[in-house]
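for the recovery benchmark. tokens below, seq after
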């Protein structure tokens, strides 16, 4: 049987590399943006931005805004290949979340995040604390449901759609007065999405997405970004009945649900045992509880980077890799 170890950057056409440009003059300031229950006002395009997550970082780089970036943080994987040059001179403040003091040391006028945990109590700082010092903040719409941050303690009640990602791109482009670049990026991503779905029909297959952790595996629930990948290709997520984006489960539950295919997170970080792909495969094939899973005995594995399973531009890479991997298995044609 086939072991499909696919990475998004190598399996797809790259997003066209952007070069830094001045504003277009299309955005009218002051600009007011409704953002996850908060009203954010911009008197001009930000000049010094800190991005607290890889997802928001790669959007800003794709928009050609690297000269405005004074810091990034929270990386699960290497930067997307076509963005390496743009990212090279942007300071990395931390591999995980930076402290508030480190962020403030860059003298930012704008802070963005993909996940609301950074703006929650115990995170980098609450948005109100940034606002007190005149620093505007922005949270990705992919992490917002009914005005609440999902990763910051809220509960998702509506399934994530790709439109939330496109909204983030469009709003950030407008904030920085590069709206035409935002539209071009959205058009390119949507064209790739449609091409990936053109020949795939996986309605006969069930899947499970395992992000990390060997003891209590974190898997994809039914309303988040990884489940969106499954529904896009017509597969069934065996944990779709769980509301959280990435709930923890047990291996006994995994065995009970016995998916046809396992989508395994291949993370470059080393935060928890089981972050890397080979660790996951070694565990699955030697643990007495998991070694007889259908996907394990048939070696039906598909590897995705963490960024490809999270709501980001790399989610389109993940869709392409998932579709290609499923097509390689019998019954996925």
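predicted aa per position
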């Amino acid at each position: 049987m086939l072991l499909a170890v696919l990475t998004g950057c190598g399996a797809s056409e790259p997003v066209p590399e952007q070069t830094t440009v001045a504003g277009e003059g299309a955005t009218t300031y002051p600009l007011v943006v409704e953002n996850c229950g908060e009203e954010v006002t911009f008197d001009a395009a930000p000049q010094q931005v800190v991005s607290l997550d890889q997802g928001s970082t790669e959007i800003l780089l794709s928009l050609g805004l690297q000269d405005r970036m004074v810091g990034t943080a929270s990386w699960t994987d290497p930067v997307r290949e076509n963005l390496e040059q743009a990212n090279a001179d942007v300071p990395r403040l931390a591999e995980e979340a930076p402290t508030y003091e480190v962020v403030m040391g860059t003298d930012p006028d704008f802070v963005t995040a993909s996940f609301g945990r950074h703006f929650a109590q115990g995170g980098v700082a609450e948005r109100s604390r940034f606002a007190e010092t005149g620093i505007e903040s922005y949270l990705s719409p992919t992490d917002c449901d009914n005005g609440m941050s999902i990763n910051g303690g809220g509960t998702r009640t509506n399934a994530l759609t790709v439109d939330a990602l496109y909204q983030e791109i469009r709003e950030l482009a407008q904030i920085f007065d590069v709206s035409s670049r935002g539209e071009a990026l959205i058009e390119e991503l949507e064209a790739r999405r449609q091409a990936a779905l053109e020949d795939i029909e996986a309605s006969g297959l069930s899947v499970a997405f395992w992000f990390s952790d060997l003891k209590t595996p974190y898997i994809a629930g039914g309303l988040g970004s990884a489940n969106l990948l499954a529904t896009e290709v017509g597969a069934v997520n065996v944990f779709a009945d769980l509301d959280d984006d990435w709930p923890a489960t047990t291996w006994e539950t995994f065995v009970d649900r016995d998916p046809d295919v396992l989508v395994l997170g291949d993370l470059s970080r080393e935060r928890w045992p089981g972050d890397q792909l080979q660790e996951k495969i070694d565990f699955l094939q030697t643990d007495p509880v998991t070694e007889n899973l259908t996907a394990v005995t048939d070696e039906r594995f598909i590897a995705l980077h963490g960024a490809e399973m999270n709501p980001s531009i790399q989610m389109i890479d993940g869709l392409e890799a998932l579709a290609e991997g499923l097509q390689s298995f019998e019954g996925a044609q």
